[in-house]
Amino acid sequence: MKVSVNSRILLVDDEEGIRITLSYLLRKEGYHVDTAASYGDASVCLQTVLYDLAFIDIVLAGQNGINVLRDIKAISPTTQVVMITGNPNVKTAAEAVRLGAYDYITKPVQRELLLSISRLALTAKKVQEDQELYRANLDAIFRSVSDSIIMIDQEGRLAQFNPPAGKIFGYTRDMIGNEVAEIELPSGVLFHPVILEALHTGAPKELRRFECQMPAGKKLVVNLTATPVTETNGTVSGAVAVIRDVTRLVELEQSLKKRSHFKGIVGVSAPMQRLYGLIEALADVPTTVLIYGESGTGKESVAAALHFSGGRASGAFVKVNCSALSESLMESELFGHVRGAFTGAIADKIGRFQKADGGTLFLDEIGDISPAVQMRLLRVLQESEFERVGESAPTKVDVRVIAASNKDLVQMVKQGSFRKDLYYRLNVVRLVVPSLSERLDDLDLLVAHFITKSNKRLKKNIQGVSADTINIFMRHTWPGNVRELEHAIEHASILSKSGLIRVQDLPPELIEDLNFSSVSTIPPLKMKLTLDEALVISHGNKSQTAKLLGISRRTLYRHLDEGSKKEKKDVK
Questions:
Q1: Suppose 36 and one of 29, 41, 222, 549 were both cysteines; which one would form an S-S bond, judging by CB atoms 3.0 to 4.6 Å apart?
Q2: Could you give the count of Cα atoms lying within 13 Å of 195 in the half-sphere of its Cβ?
Q3: How far apart are CA 100 and CA 81, in angstroms?
Q4: 243-268: per-residue pLDDT in tens?
Protein backbone atom coordinates (compact mmCIF):
# COMPACT_ATOMS: atom_id res chain seq x y z
CA MET A 1 0.00 0.00 0.00
CA LYS A 2 1.47 3.36 -1.02
CA VAL A 3 2.04 5.87 1.76
CA SER A 4 1.72 9.56 0.96
CA VAL A 5 4.96 11.55 1.34
CA ASN A 6 2.77 14.51 2.30
CA SER A 7 1.93 12.89 5.62
CA ARG A 8 2.07 15.22 8.65
CA ILE A 9 4.25 14.07 11.55
CA LEU A 10 4.53 15.56 15.05
CA LEU A 11 7.80 15.01 16.94
CA VAL A 12 7.63 15.66 20.70
CA ASP A 13 10.92 15.47 22.66
CA ASP A 14 12.49 17.76 25.26
CA GLU A 15 16.00 17.14 23.92
CA GLU A 16 16.78 19.62 21.15
CA GLY A 17 19.43 17.42 19.53
CA ILE A 18 16.99 14.55 19.11
CA ARG A 19 14.34 16.88 17.67
CA ILE A 20 16.78 18.30 15.13
CA THR A 21 18.20 14.90 14.09
CA LEU A 22 14.93 13.01 13.78
CA SER A 23 13.06 15.84 12.05
CA TYR A 24 15.91 16.15 9.54
CA LEU A 25 15.75 12.44 8.69
CA LEU A 26 11.97 12.51 8.30
CA ARG A 27 11.89 15.69 6.21
CA LYS A 28 14.57 14.23 3.96
CA GLU A 29 12.04 11.46 3.15
CA GLY A 30 9.45 14.07 2.16
CA TYR A 31 7.35 14.17 5.33
CA HIS A 32 6.02 17.42 6.80
CA VAL A 33 7.34 17.56 10.35
CA ASP A 34 6.40 19.81 13.29
CA THR A 35 8.37 19.66 16.53
CA ALA A 36 7.43 20.36 20.14
CA ALA A 37 9.69 20.51 23.20
CA SER A 38 6.99 20.16 25.84
CA TYR A 39 3.43 19.07 26.54
CA GLY A 40 2.30 22.69 26.17
CA ASP A 41 3.98 23.09 22.77
CA ALA A 42 2.45 19.82 21.62
CA SER A 43 -1.02 20.97 22.74
CA VAL A 44 -0.67 24.12 20.63
CA CYS A 45 0.26 22.05 17.57
CA LEU A 46 -2.65 19.68 18.12
CA GLN A 47 -5.11 22.59 18.13
CA THR A 48 -4.23 23.60 14.56
CA VAL A 49 -3.07 20.47 12.72
CA LEU A 50 -4.46 16.95 12.32
CA TYR A 51 -1.43 14.64 12.27
CA ASP A 52 -1.00 11.27 10.62
CA LEU A 53 1.83 10.12 12.89
CA ALA A 54 3.43 11.28 16.14
CA PHE A 55 6.71 10.35 17.82
CA ILE A 56 6.50 11.17 21.54
CA ASP A 57 9.13 10.90 24.23
CA ILE A 58 7.58 9.17 27.23
CA VAL A 59 9.50 11.44 29.64
CA LEU A 60 9.01 15.17 29.03
CA ALA A 61 10.09 18.05 31.20
CA GLY A 62 7.36 18.47 33.82
CA GLN A 63 4.96 16.13 32.05
CA ASN A 64 4.43 12.54 30.97
CA GLY A 65 4.36 11.77 27.24
CA ILE A 66 1.45 9.44 27.94
CA ASN A 67 -0.71 12.56 28.42
CA VAL A 68 0.14 13.72 24.89
CA LEU A 69 -0.83 10.24 23.63
CA ARG A 70 -4.21 10.54 25.38
CA ASP A 71 -4.83 13.99 23.85
CA ILE A 72 -3.97 12.80 20.35
CA LYS A 73 -6.27 9.75 20.54
CA ALA A 74 -9.07 11.93 21.88
CA ILE A 75 -8.72 14.28 18.89
CA SER A 76 -7.93 11.75 16.14
CA PRO A 77 -8.24 8.01 16.92
CA THR A 78 -6.60 7.03 13.61
CA THR A 79 -3.41 9.07 14.23
CA GLN A 80 -0.62 6.55 14.81
CA VAL A 81 1.61 7.19 17.85
CA VAL A 82 5.09 5.76 18.43
CA MET A 83 6.53 6.26 21.93
CA ILE A 84 10.24 7.02 22.39
CA THR A 85 12.01 6.00 25.58
CA GLY A 86 15.55 6.03 26.84
CA ASN A 87 14.76 3.55 29.62
CA PRO A 88 12.45 0.74 28.44
CA ASN A 89 9.85 -0.12 31.04
CA VAL A 90 7.37 -2.91 30.52
CA LYS A 91 4.68 -1.24 32.61
CA THR A 92 4.94 2.08 30.76
CA ALA A 93 5.07 0.40 27.36
CA ALA A 94 2.04 -1.73 28.18
CA GLU A 95 0.08 1.36 29.24
CA ALA A 96 1.03 3.13 26.02
CA VAL A 97 -0.16 0.20 23.88
CA ARG A 98 -3.36 -0.05 25.93
CA LEU A 99 -4.05 3.62 25.20
CA GLY A 100 -3.62 3.08 21.47
CA ALA A 101 0.09 3.52 20.74
CA TYR A 102 1.22 1.78 17.57
CA ASP A 103 4.67 0.86 18.92
CA TYR A 104 7.59 2.18 20.93
CA ILE A 105 11.30 2.59 20.13
CA THR A 106 14.33 3.15 22.33
CA LYS A 107 17.05 5.75 22.26
CA PRO A 108 19.34 6.16 20.49
CA VAL A 109 16.99 6.00 17.51
CA GLN A 110 18.51 4.42 14.42
CA ARG A 111 17.75 5.94 11.01
CA GLU A 112 16.61 2.65 9.41
CA LEU A 113 14.31 1.88 12.34
CA LEU A 114 12.85 5.41 12.33
CA LEU A 115 12.02 5.33 8.63
CA SER A 116 10.81 1.73 8.69
CA ILE A 117 8.46 2.24 11.61
CA SER A 118 7.20 5.49 10.01
CA ARG A 119 6.21 3.63 6.84
CA LEU A 120 4.60 0.79 8.79
CA ALA A 121 2.68 3.12 11.08
CA LEU A 122 1.40 5.25 8.19
CA THR A 123 0.39 2.10 6.30
CA ALA A 124 -1.49 0.90 9.38
CA LYS A 125 -3.22 4.29 9.56
CA LYS A 126 -4.31 4.00 5.92
CA VAL A 127 -5.65 0.46 6.48
CA GLN A 128 -7.48 1.57 9.62
CA GLU A 129 -8.99 4.56 7.82
CA ASP A 130 -10.10 2.39 4.88
CA GLN A 131 -11.70 -0.11 7.24
CA GLU A 132 -13.37 2.66 9.19
CA LEU A 133 -14.64 4.24 5.97
CA TYR A 134 -15.97 0.88 4.77
CA ARG A 135 -17.65 0.24 8.11
CA ALA A 136 -19.04 3.78 8.20
CA ASN A 137 -20.39 3.45 4.66
CA LEU A 138 -22.06 0.13 5.47
CA ASP A 139 -23.44 1.54 8.69
CA ALA A 140 -24.70 4.65 6.89
CA ILE A 141 -26.37 2.51 4.22
CA PHE A 142 -27.83 0.18 6.84
CA ARG A 143 -29.21 3.08 8.85
CA SER A 144 -30.26 5.39 6.01
CA VAL A 145 -32.17 2.81 3.96
CA SER A 146 -35.86 3.44 4.46
CA ASP A 147 -36.63 -0.26 4.10
CA SER A 148 -36.67 -2.33 7.27
CA ILE A 149 -33.70 -4.72 7.47
CA ILE A 150 -33.51 -7.68 9.84
CA MET A 151 -30.52 -10.02 10.18
CA ILE A 152 -30.48 -13.38 11.94
CA ASP A 153 -27.55 -15.67 12.67
CA GLN A 154 -27.04 -19.36 11.90
CA GLU A 155 -29.02 -20.36 15.00
CA GLY A 156 -32.03 -18.25 14.04
CA ARG A 157 -31.28 -15.54 16.61
CA LEU A 158 -31.81 -11.85 15.96
CA ALA A 159 -28.39 -10.41 15.09
CA GLN A 160 -29.14 -6.87 13.96
CA PHE A 161 -31.85 -4.57 12.70
CA ASN A 162 -31.93 -1.02 11.37
CA PRO A 163 -33.94 1.94 12.75
CA PRO A 164 -36.97 1.51 10.43
CA ALA A 165 -37.36 -2.10 11.60
CA GLY A 166 -37.36 -0.91 15.19
CA LYS A 167 -39.65 2.03 14.60
CA ILE A 168 -42.22 0.28 12.43
CA PHE A 169 -42.29 -3.27 13.76
CA GLY A 170 -41.16 -2.81 17.36
CA TYR A 171 -37.73 -4.44 17.45
CA THR A 172 -35.65 -3.31 20.46
CA ARG A 173 -31.97 -3.71 21.37
CA ASP A 174 -32.74 -6.15 24.17
CA MET A 175 -34.19 -8.56 21.59
CA ILE A 176 -30.78 -9.06 19.96
CA GLY A 177 -29.56 -12.57 20.69
CA ASN A 178 -33.08 -13.94 21.14
CA GLU A 179 -34.50 -16.56 18.80
CA VAL A 180 -36.74 -14.76 16.30
CA ALA A 181 -39.30 -17.55 16.60
CA GLU A 182 -39.81 -16.47 20.23
CA ILE A 183 -39.97 -12.72 19.56
CA GLU A 184 -43.52 -11.40 19.67
CA LEU A 185 -44.49 -8.88 17.02
CA PRO A 186 -47.85 -7.19 16.38
CA SER A 187 -50.51 -9.67 15.26
CA GLY A 188 -50.57 -10.02 11.51
CA VAL A 189 -46.79 -9.48 11.16
CA LEU A 190 -45.70 -12.92 9.96
CA PHE A 191 -42.11 -12.25 8.89
CA HIS A 192 -40.18 -14.64 11.09
CA PRO A 193 -41.37 -17.92 9.51
CA VAL A 194 -40.34 -16.60 6.09
CA ILE A 195 -36.86 -15.56 7.30
CA LEU A 196 -36.35 -18.89 9.05
CA GLU A 197 -37.47 -20.74 5.92
CA ALA A 198 -34.80 -18.90 3.91
CA LEU A 199 -32.22 -19.83 6.57
CA HIS A 200 -33.18 -23.51 6.71
CA THR A 201 -33.67 -24.07 2.97
CA GLY A 202 -30.80 -21.89 1.79
CA ALA A 203 -33.10 -20.41 -0.85
CA PRO A 204 -34.53 -16.88 -1.16
CA LYS A 205 -38.15 -16.41 -0.13
CA GLU A 206 -40.54 -13.64 -1.06
CA LEU A 207 -43.90 -12.21 -0.04
CA ARG A 208 -45.48 -9.55 -2.23
CA ARG A 209 -48.12 -7.04 -1.18
CA PHE A 210 -48.59 -8.69 2.19
CA GLU A 211 -50.99 -6.84 4.48
CA CYS A 212 -49.94 -6.42 8.13
CA GLN A 213 -52.35 -5.44 10.87
CA MET A 214 -50.49 -3.01 13.13
CA PRO A 215 -51.47 -1.58 16.54
CA ALA A 216 -54.23 1.04 16.69
CA GLY A 217 -55.90 -0.44 13.62
CA LYS A 218 -53.17 0.71 11.23
CA LYS A 219 -52.55 -1.46 8.18
CA LEU A 220 -49.30 -1.79 6.26
CA VAL A 221 -48.80 -3.39 2.87
CA VAL A 222 -45.27 -4.71 2.48
CA ASN A 223 -43.03 -6.65 0.12
CA LEU A 224 -40.63 -8.99 1.92
CA THR A 225 -37.51 -10.61 0.50
CA ALA A 226 -35.58 -13.03 2.73
CA THR A 227 -32.14 -14.09 1.48
CA PRO A 228 -29.73 -16.58 3.06
CA VAL A 229 -26.21 -15.34 3.88
CA THR A 230 -23.86 -17.84 2.23
CA GLU A 231 -20.13 -18.06 2.98
CA THR A 232 -17.55 -18.73 0.25
CA ASN A 233 -17.51 -22.42 1.25
CA GLY A 234 -21.27 -22.64 0.74
CA THR A 235 -22.19 -22.65 4.42
CA VAL A 236 -25.34 -20.70 5.29
CA SER A 237 -24.36 -18.48 8.23
CA GLY A 238 -27.57 -16.52 8.58
CA ALA A 239 -30.28 -14.72 6.69
CA VAL A 240 -31.27 -11.14 5.98
CA ALA A 241 -34.78 -9.89 5.34
CA VAL A 242 -35.60 -6.64 3.58
CA ILE A 243 -39.12 -5.41 4.22
CA ARG A 244 -40.33 -2.63 1.96
CA ASP A 245 -43.39 -0.67 2.99
CA VAL A 246 -45.44 -0.26 -0.21
CA THR A 247 -48.51 1.09 1.57
CA ARG A 248 -47.96 4.55 0.14
CA LEU A 249 -47.46 3.09 -3.34
CA VAL A 250 -50.72 1.20 -3.05
CA GLU A 251 -52.45 4.34 -1.79
CA LEU A 252 -50.95 6.38 -4.64
CA GLU A 253 -52.10 3.79 -7.16
CA GLN A 254 -55.55 3.97 -5.67
CA SER A 255 -55.44 7.77 -5.63
CA LEU A 256 -54.20 8.03 -9.22
CA LYS A 257 -56.86 5.62 -10.36
CA LYS A 258 -59.77 7.05 -8.35
CA ARG A 259 -61.64 7.98 -11.53
CA SER A 260 -61.50 4.34 -12.60
CA HIS A 261 -61.53 2.54 -9.29
CA PHE A 262 -65.03 3.55 -8.38
CA LYS A 263 -66.11 2.50 -11.86
CA GLY A 264 -64.63 -0.94 -11.35
CA ILE A 265 -61.58 -0.64 -13.59
CA VAL A 266 -58.29 -1.83 -12.12
CA GLY A 267 -54.93 -1.57 -13.88
CA VAL A 268 -51.69 0.38 -14.07
CA SER A 269 -50.18 -1.10 -17.25
CA ALA A 270 -49.44 0.99 -20.34
CA PRO A 271 -52.45 -0.37 -22.31
CA MET A 272 -54.77 0.54 -19.45
CA GLN A 273 -53.23 3.99 -19.09
CA ARG A 274 -53.95 4.63 -22.77
CA LEU A 275 -57.50 3.39 -22.26
CA TYR A 276 -57.97 5.73 -19.28
CA GLY A 277 -56.78 8.64 -21.42
CA LEU A 278 -59.31 7.84 -24.14
CA ILE A 279 -62.11 7.47 -21.59
CA GLU A 280 -61.24 10.87 -20.15
CA ALA A 281 -61.13 12.45 -23.63
CA LEU A 282 -64.51 10.98 -24.63
CA ALA A 283 -66.34 11.41 -21.33
CA ASP A 284 -67.95 14.78 -22.09
CA VAL A 285 -68.74 14.39 -25.79
CA PRO A 286 -72.06 12.96 -27.10
CA THR A 287 -70.29 10.81 -29.69
CA THR A 288 -71.36 7.20 -30.09
CA VAL A 289 -68.61 4.81 -28.97
CA LEU A 290 -68.03 1.22 -30.04
CA ILE A 291 -66.11 -0.87 -27.51
CA TYR A 292 -64.26 -3.94 -28.72
CA GLY A 293 -62.77 -6.62 -26.51
CA GLU A 294 -62.66 -10.33 -25.84
CA SER A 295 -65.23 -11.87 -23.54
CA GLY A 296 -64.49 -11.09 -19.91
CA THR A 297 -62.23 -8.08 -20.49
CA GLY A 298 -64.58 -5.63 -18.76
CA LYS A 299 -66.33 -3.82 -21.61
CA GLU A 300 -69.28 -2.96 -19.38
CA SER A 301 -66.93 -1.34 -16.84
CA VAL A 302 -65.43 0.79 -19.62
CA ALA A 303 -68.91 1.87 -20.73
CA ALA A 304 -69.78 2.77 -17.13
CA ALA A 305 -66.52 4.72 -16.87
CA LEU A 306 -67.43 6.75 -19.95
CA HIS A 307 -70.84 7.54 -18.48
CA PHE A 308 -69.81 8.39 -14.93
CA SER A 309 -66.78 10.46 -15.97
CA GLY A 310 -68.81 12.96 -17.98
CA GLY A 311 -71.67 15.40 -17.71
CA ARG A 312 -74.26 12.64 -18.03
CA ALA A 313 -73.15 11.04 -14.76
CA SER A 314 -76.27 12.31 -12.99
CA GLY A 315 -78.45 10.65 -15.63
CA ALA A 316 -79.32 6.99 -15.90
CA PHE A 317 -76.85 4.36 -17.09
CA VAL A 318 -79.07 1.72 -18.71
CA LYS A 319 -77.66 -1.64 -19.82
CA VAL A 320 -79.04 -4.06 -22.40
CA ASN A 321 -77.54 -7.48 -23.14
CA CYS A 322 -78.56 -7.91 -26.76
CA SER A 323 -77.58 -11.58 -26.93
CA ALA A 324 -80.01 -12.49 -24.14
CA LEU A 325 -83.17 -11.21 -25.89
CA SER A 326 -85.18 -12.51 -28.83
CA GLU A 327 -86.08 -10.16 -31.69
CA SER A 328 -89.64 -9.54 -30.44
CA LEU A 329 -88.52 -8.94 -26.88
CA MET A 330 -85.61 -6.79 -28.07
CA GLU A 331 -87.91 -4.25 -29.76
CA SER A 332 -90.14 -4.06 -26.72
CA GLU A 333 -87.17 -3.74 -24.35
CA LEU A 334 -85.45 -1.04 -26.39
CA PHE A 335 -88.40 1.06 -27.50
CA GLY A 336 -91.24 0.10 -25.16
CA HIS A 337 -94.80 -0.71 -26.18
CA VAL A 338 -98.36 0.45 -25.65
CA ARG A 339 -101.14 -1.60 -24.15
CA GLY A 340 -102.56 -4.10 -26.64
CA ALA A 341 -99.64 -3.81 -29.05
CA PHE A 342 -99.27 -7.59 -28.99
CA THR A 343 -100.53 -10.57 -27.05
CA GLY A 344 -99.47 -10.15 -23.45
CA ALA A 345 -99.05 -6.37 -23.66
CA ILE A 346 -101.53 -5.68 -20.87
CA ALA A 347 -100.05 -2.28 -19.99
CA ASP A 348 -97.90 0.45 -21.45
CA LYS A 349 -94.19 -0.14 -21.03
CA ILE A 350 -91.34 2.35 -21.10
CA GLY A 351 -88.40 1.13 -23.18
CA ARG A 352 -84.71 1.33 -22.36
CA PHE A 353 -84.16 4.32 -24.66
CA GLN A 354 -86.76 6.32 -22.77
CA LYS A 355 -85.34 5.21 -19.42
CA ALA A 356 -81.90 6.39 -20.56
CA ASP A 357 -83.16 9.85 -21.61
CA GLY A 358 -80.57 12.37 -20.40
CA GLY A 359 -78.11 9.56 -19.74
CA THR A 360 -76.40 6.66 -21.48
CA LEU A 361 -77.67 3.44 -23.08
CA PHE A 362 -75.14 0.61 -23.18
CA LEU A 363 -75.85 -2.04 -25.82
CA ASP A 364 -73.70 -5.06 -25.04
CA GLU A 365 -73.13 -7.75 -27.70
CA ILE A 366 -74.51 -5.43 -30.41
CA GLY A 367 -73.55 -7.97 -33.08
CA ASP A 368 -76.40 -10.24 -31.98
CA ILE A 369 -79.32 -7.95 -32.91
CA SER A 370 -81.55 -8.83 -35.85
CA PRO A 371 -81.70 -6.85 -39.13
CA ALA A 372 -85.11 -5.41 -38.19
CA VAL A 373 -83.84 -4.09 -34.87
CA GLN A 374 -80.69 -2.83 -36.61
CA MET A 375 -82.86 -0.69 -38.89
CA ARG A 376 -84.87 0.79 -36.00
CA LEU A 377 -81.71 1.42 -34.01
CA LEU A 378 -80.18 3.27 -36.98
CA ARG A 379 -83.15 5.65 -37.07
CA VAL A 380 -82.80 6.45 -33.37
CA LEU A 381 -79.13 7.24 -33.87
CA GLN A 382 -79.92 9.45 -36.87
CA GLU A 383 -83.06 11.21 -35.66
CA SER A 384 -82.86 10.88 -31.85
CA GLU A 385 -86.45 9.64 -31.85
CA PHE A 386 -88.36 6.35 -31.92
CA GLU A 387 -91.88 4.92 -31.80
CA ARG A 388 -92.98 2.50 -29.17
CA VAL A 389 -94.27 -0.84 -30.44
CA GLY A 390 -97.92 -0.34 -31.38
CA GLU A 391 -97.64 3.45 -31.48
CA SER A 392 -97.10 5.81 -34.42
CA ALA A 393 -96.25 8.99 -32.52
CA PRO A 394 -92.45 9.52 -32.25
CA THR A 395 -90.78 10.09 -28.90
CA LYS A 396 -87.75 12.40 -28.77
CA VAL A 397 -84.86 11.37 -26.52
CA ASP A 398 -81.43 12.67 -25.60
CA VAL A 399 -79.42 9.51 -25.20
CA ARG A 400 -75.77 8.72 -25.68
CA VAL A 401 -75.34 5.24 -27.13
CA ILE A 402 -72.35 3.08 -26.27
CA ALA A 403 -72.18 -0.32 -27.93
CA ALA A 404 -69.87 -3.25 -27.32
CA SER A 405 -69.01 -6.44 -29.15
CA ASN A 406 -66.53 -9.29 -29.07
CA LYS A 407 -67.38 -10.16 -32.67
CA ASP A 408 -65.71 -8.91 -35.85
CA LEU A 409 -68.36 -6.45 -37.03
CA VAL A 410 -66.34 -5.55 -40.13
CA GLN A 411 -66.49 -9.18 -41.23
CA MET A 412 -70.20 -9.27 -40.42
CA VAL A 413 -70.72 -6.19 -42.63
CA LYS A 414 -68.91 -7.97 -45.48
CA GLN A 415 -71.09 -11.04 -44.96
CA GLY A 416 -74.23 -8.88 -44.97
CA SER A 417 -75.35 -9.86 -41.46
CA PHE A 418 -74.72 -6.37 -40.05
CA ARG A 419 -75.78 -3.09 -41.66
CA LYS A 420 -72.89 -1.04 -42.96
CA ASP A 421 -74.60 2.29 -42.24
CA LEU A 422 -75.33 1.23 -38.65
CA TYR A 423 -71.74 0.08 -38.21
CA TYR A 424 -70.42 3.50 -39.24
CA ARG A 425 -72.95 5.22 -36.97
CA LEU A 426 -71.78 3.15 -34.03
CA ASN A 427 -68.09 3.19 -34.86
CA VAL A 428 -67.56 6.96 -34.59
CA VAL A 429 -64.93 6.29 -31.95
CA ARG A 430 -63.54 2.83 -31.30
CA LEU A 431 -62.20 1.71 -27.91
CA VAL A 432 -60.33 -1.57 -27.62
CA VAL A 433 -60.16 -3.16 -24.17
CA PRO A 434 -56.90 -5.13 -23.86
CA SER A 435 -57.04 -8.80 -22.98
CA LEU A 436 -55.51 -9.92 -19.69
CA SER A 437 -52.64 -11.59 -21.55
CA GLU A 438 -51.76 -8.13 -22.94
CA ARG A 439 -51.66 -6.52 -19.49
CA LEU A 440 -49.91 -9.02 -17.22
CA ASP A 441 -48.27 -6.06 -15.45
CA ASP A 442 -51.68 -5.59 -13.82
CA LEU A 443 -51.82 -9.14 -12.49
CA ASP A 444 -50.62 -8.34 -8.95
CA LEU A 445 -53.04 -5.43 -8.66
CA LEU A 446 -55.96 -7.42 -10.03
CA VAL A 447 -55.21 -10.34 -7.71
CA ALA A 448 -55.14 -8.01 -4.70
CA HIS A 449 -58.38 -6.35 -5.87
CA PHE A 450 -60.24 -9.64 -6.29
CA ILE A 451 -58.90 -11.01 -3.00
CA THR A 452 -60.28 -7.95 -1.22
CA LYS A 453 -63.58 -8.37 -3.05
CA SER A 454 -63.78 -12.09 -2.18
CA ASN A 455 -62.85 -11.46 1.45
CA LYS A 456 -65.78 -9.08 1.82
CA ARG A 457 -68.22 -11.34 -0.01
CA LEU A 458 -67.14 -14.62 1.59
CA LYS A 459 -66.12 -13.18 4.98
CA LYS A 460 -62.64 -14.67 4.57
CA ASN A 461 -59.21 -13.32 5.52
CA ILE A 462 -57.03 -14.22 2.56
CA GLN A 463 -53.87 -12.09 2.71
CA GLY A 464 -52.09 -12.99 -0.51
CA VAL A 465 -51.00 -15.67 -2.95
CA SER A 466 -47.91 -17.88 -3.00
CA ALA A 467 -45.10 -17.21 -5.45
CA ASP A 468 -45.91 -20.56 -7.09
CA THR A 469 -49.46 -19.42 -7.76
CA ILE A 470 -48.30 -16.12 -9.25
CA ASN A 471 -45.99 -17.99 -11.60
CA ILE A 472 -48.87 -20.18 -12.77
CA PHE A 473 -50.99 -17.06 -13.25
CA MET A 474 -48.21 -15.53 -15.36
CA ARG A 475 -48.11 -18.62 -17.60
CA HIS A 476 -51.85 -19.12 -18.00
CA THR A 477 -53.37 -17.94 -21.30
CA TRP A 478 -56.49 -16.44 -19.65
CA PRO A 479 -59.05 -17.10 -22.41
CA GLY A 480 -61.72 -15.80 -20.02
CA ASN A 481 -59.65 -12.71 -19.21
CA VAL A 482 -60.34 -10.68 -16.06
CA ARG A 483 -63.62 -12.47 -15.38
CA GLU A 484 -61.79 -15.81 -15.37
CA LEU A 485 -59.20 -14.44 -12.93
CA GLU A 486 -61.93 -13.17 -10.62
CA HIS A 487 -63.64 -16.56 -10.63
CA ALA A 488 -60.31 -18.33 -10.03
CA ILE A 489 -59.57 -16.12 -7.01
CA GLU A 490 -63.06 -16.70 -5.60
CA HIS A 491 -62.74 -20.47 -6.12
CA ALA A 492 -59.31 -20.51 -4.44
CA SER A 493 -60.51 -18.30 -1.57
CA ILE A 494 -63.29 -20.76 -0.80
CA LEU A 495 -60.89 -23.73 -0.74
CA SER A 496 -57.97 -22.05 1.03
CA LYS A 497 -57.33 -23.40 4.51
CA SER A 498 -54.87 -20.64 5.39
CA GLY A 499 -54.36 -16.96 4.74
CA LEU A 500 -52.49 -17.72 1.52
CA ILE A 501 -53.82 -18.97 -1.82
CA ARG A 502 -51.70 -21.91 -2.95
CA VAL A 503 -51.55 -24.00 -6.12
CA GLN A 504 -53.79 -26.73 -4.72
CA ASP A 505 -56.55 -24.16 -4.14
CA LEU A 506 -56.80 -23.20 -7.83
CA PRO A 507 -59.53 -24.44 -10.20
CA PRO A 508 -58.52 -27.70 -11.95
CA GLU A 509 -58.98 -26.21 -15.42
CA LEU A 510 -56.46 -23.48 -14.60
CA ILE A 511 -53.81 -26.01 -13.64
CA GLU A 512 -54.64 -28.27 -16.60
CA ASP A 513 -53.88 -25.38 -18.96
CA LEU A 514 -50.17 -26.04 -18.38
CA ASN A 515 -48.89 -28.09 -21.30
CA PHE A 516 -47.50 -31.13 -19.55
CA SER A 517 -46.90 -32.91 -22.80
CA SER A 518 -43.95 -30.59 -23.35
CA VAL A 519 -42.85 -29.87 -19.81
CA SER A 520 -39.20 -30.37 -20.74
CA THR A 521 -39.42 -27.58 -23.32
CA ILE A 522 -40.95 -25.06 -20.93
CA PRO A 523 -38.46 -22.58 -19.44
CA PRO A 524 -37.96 -23.18 -15.70
CA LEU A 525 -40.42 -21.35 -13.50
CA LYS A 526 -39.02 -18.66 -11.23
CA MET A 527 -40.11 -20.61 -8.18
CA LYS A 528 -39.56 -23.73 -6.15
CA LEU A 529 -42.63 -25.97 -6.09
CA THR A 530 -43.25 -28.11 -3.06
CA LEU A 531 -43.68 -31.83 -3.61
CA ASP A 532 -47.38 -31.65 -2.75
CA GLU A 533 -47.97 -28.73 -5.14
CA ALA A 534 -46.17 -30.50 -8.00
CA LEU A 535 -48.28 -33.62 -7.42
CA VAL A 536 -51.45 -31.51 -7.52
CA ILE A 537 -50.43 -29.81 -10.78
CA SER A 538 -49.55 -33.10 -12.46
CA HIS A 539 -52.62 -34.92 -11.07
CA GLY A 540 -50.35 -37.49 -9.44
CA ASN A 541 -48.39 -38.27 -12.62
CA LYS A 542 -44.97 -39.18 -11.19
CA SER A 543 -43.07 -38.56 -14.42
CA GLN A 544 -44.51 -35.05 -14.83
CA THR A 545 -44.04 -34.35 -11.12
CA ALA A 546 -40.35 -35.19 -11.39
CA LYS A 547 -39.98 -32.91 -14.43
CA LEU A 548 -41.68 -30.03 -12.63
CA LEU A 549 -39.38 -30.43 -9.64
CA GLY A 550 -36.29 -30.88 -11.81
CA ILE A 551 -35.38 -34.22 -10.22
CA SER A 552 -35.14 -37.83 -11.37
CA ARG A 553 -37.99 -40.29 -10.88
CA ARG A 554 -35.78 -42.32 -8.55
CA THR A 555 -35.24 -39.25 -6.34
CA LEU A 556 -38.97 -38.52 -6.43
CA TYR A 557 -39.85 -42.04 -5.27
CA ARG A 558 -37.29 -41.76 -2.47
CA HIS A 559 -38.91 -38.51 -1.26
CA LEU A 560 -42.36 -40.08 -1.47
CA ASP A 561 -41.16 -43.09 0.50
CA GLU A 562 -39.58 -40.89 3.18
CA GLY A 563 -42.78 -38.84 3.41
CA SER A 564 -44.85 -42.00 3.80
CA LYS A 565 -42.61 -43.26 6.60
CA LYS A 566 -42.83 -39.91 8.37
CA GLU A 567 -46.63 -39.91 8.16
CA LYS A 568 -46.78 -43.42 9.68
CA LYS A 569 -44.42 -42.35 12.44
CA ASP A 570 -46.54 -39.26 13.16
CA VAL A 571 -49.65 -41.42 13.40
CA LYS A 572 -47.99 -43.69 15.94
A1: 41
A2: 28
A3: 8
A4: 888 887 777 666 554 443 546 688 87
